[in-house]
Write a structure and sequence with these properties.
single chain, 428 residues, alpha/beta, two-stranded antiparallel ribbon, 18 helices, 9 strands
């Protein structure tokens, strides 16, 4: 049995939250996994995806929608957000499911790109979320996934600029499906009125609107609170102390659970709206989409003027400034500071102690602790707490983590640069 509903994407627009909410409706069955990506493989697998990226075989794909639950469900859904981007997916979906219902979530394309940028580098220990670096990556289209490995004819996915050309992508589906089969949902509306948005979605899918699942915030972009710890736990394969510890703990389920617990404790959600782009960068990048958004607004009778409206810089300690004449009678804008703010900068080094010296001391102490942990694993035969599952290795690793978290605000935080009317600033 094939699905009859496709949540097409794009990525970082709330597809996971919507798919999770729909899966709790009794008349709807969403596939597990959420992103089978079957139609990316269909048509000859033009992106040369590896077989572990989804469900490439047709029979396996059919089994996702078999069983008693599928038979009772009026809607069987596939939420693969890359379908909107790949040109061949529209034709393949129409060829196999011509009466399917399709849904696309529209998010401000610059904000979507900025969220993707931060997600892309979230595990990089040196990542500073610099808006100027984002601007350069966006204009140069440098964030690309290419599985073809140099093979002729292989396609690649560009994640920042091209993934936001909604009109281009939706028009490919217009060639094969009627407008009544395609629903466009604004991400801003999902955030501002989740219940109303869910009601519209259920009516589009023609399932009972008496049950409206709550739209919960899911798949939020997280970043490590302490990037050095995250890098060491997950990526620093060349670190000798880590290699020693991994060798000693290889196969230990307790060690795996402990690492997962540390990863969960060492992360924080960072919604893009809490760290907006400087207005000067946003106003420059949104110009890339002017023609595309105007075509989209005309095609779907959507009001996208708020995306195209120029933004003004935010005052350092105030609310966002309003552009005069756009909304009623705007009060005169408060002046933006003309000199960089220094209240959050670290004091200059004094005497022998400095920020660099502090970082070095923490790194040395962490290395010594990690070596001691590995030695303790082999040297000590008894647990610190007899009769329990908490052994000496877990205690020492937790001790290192707590010590690092206490010292991180002093030695790893970098000052934010101010965002003035005359400069593009950045920072963590």
């Amino acid at each position: 049995m094939l699905p009859n509903f496709f949540l097409l994407g794009p990525p970082k627009t709330g597809t996971t939250a919507l798919a999770e909410a729909l899966s709790r409706h009794p008349d709807i069955l969403m596939s597990t996994p959420k992103e089978p990506n079957y139609f990316l493989y269909a048509g000859g697998n033009p992106y040369n995806l590896s077989l572990d990226r989804g469900v490439p075989r047709f029979q396996d794909y059919l089994r996702l929608f078999d069983g008693a639950d599928a038979a009772a469900a009026r809607i069987r859904g596939d939420a693969s957000p890359y379908y909107i981007y790949a040109p061949h997916c529209a034709l393949e979906i129409h060829r196999q499911v011509p009466d399917a219902k399709l849904m696309v979530i529209l998010r401000n394309p610059v904000e979507r790109a900025f969220s993707t940028y931060r997600y892309w580098f979230k595990d990089n220990p040196n990542f500073q979320c610099d808006p100027e670096d984002f601007r350069e990556q966006f204009l140069r289209r440098t964030l690309v996934t290419d599985h073809s490995q140099g093979q002729a004819g292989g396609l690649a996915m560009e994640w920042l600029q091209d993934m936001g050309r909604y009109a281009d992508m939706i028009e490919r589906y217009d060639e094969h499906f009627s407008s009544s089969q395609i629903m466009l949902l604004r991400y801003d509306d999902m955030v501002a009125d989740s219940a109303g948005s869910m009601d519209r979605v259920l009516k589009f899918l023609e399932v009972t609107p008496d049950i409206v699942p709550e739209l919960r915030q899911t798949n939020v972009t997280f970043e490590p609170s302490w990037r050095a710890l995250n890098h060491w736990l997950n990526w620093d394969v060349g670190n000798p102390a880590r290699q020693l510890l991994v060798t000693g703990l290889r196969g230990s389920r307790q060690a795996i659970r402990l690492r997962e617990a540390l990863n969960r404790a060492n992360r924080r959600p960072v919604p893009t709206r809490d760290r907006p782009l400087p207005a000067s960068i946003y106003n420059e990048l949104i110009q890339v989409y002017v023609d595309d958004l105007r075509r989209l607004a005309k095609r779907a009778s959507l009001d996208l003027s708020d995306w195209l409206r120029p933004r003004l810089e935010e005052a350092r300690y105030g609310k966002p400034l309003r552009a005069p004449g756009l909304v009623g009678r705007a009060s005169p804008p408060r002046p933006v500071p003309s000199t960089p703010a220094t209240h959050d900068r670290l004091p200059p080094p004094q005497g022998w102690w400095s920020r660099d010296a502090g970082q070095l001391a923490v790194q040395i102490a962490a290395s010594i602790s990690l070596v001691a942990t590995a030695i303790a694993y082999w040297a000590w035969t008894d647990d610190f707490f007899p009769g329990t599952k908490v052994d000496d290795v877990a205690c020492l690793v937790v001790f290192c983590f707590v010590a690092g978290r206490l010292s991180a605000p002093w030695f790893t935080k970098r000052p934010e640069r101010s965002v003035d009317s005359g400069e593009r600033g950045g920072g963590r």
